[in-house]
Specification:
With about 90 residues, the chain is an all-alpha fold. The chain has one domain. Helix 1 packs antiparallel against helix 2, helix 1 runs parallel beside helix 3 and helix 2 packs antiparallel against helix 3.
């Protein structure tokens, strides 16, 4: 495997991991540290986490020289979608 390809894989993995940990942490913070009566604040943080997740997918696509607009952007919304589902179930 050529060196540039390996560098892209490592950078993509690192970017995606860091952004998903950040996004998931925001979701957990929205669900468990903000007072339950502040639903608007929780929804706002879930929206910010969704933007970070989508930006992570877009960043990986840019690193690999691919088009940003793709159905894979929906995968970036996964942590926020799980958080919204848990929030709605309360």
């Amino acid at each position: 495997m050529e060196l540039l390809r390996v560098q892209r894989w490592v950078a993509s993995t690192l970017a995606l991991t860091v952004a998903y940990v950040w996004s998931s942490g925001m979701v957990l913070g929205a669900l468990y540290t903000i007072d339950q009566s502040r639903t608007g604040a929780q929804i706002g943080i879930l929206c910010m986490a969704a933007v970070i997740g989508a930006a992570a997918i877009a960043g990986v696509r840019v690193i690999n020289g691919l088009s940003i607009l793709t159905p894979w952007l929906l995968a970036g919304l996964f942590p926020s979608a799980v958080g919204a589902w848990v929030l709605a179930g309360r």
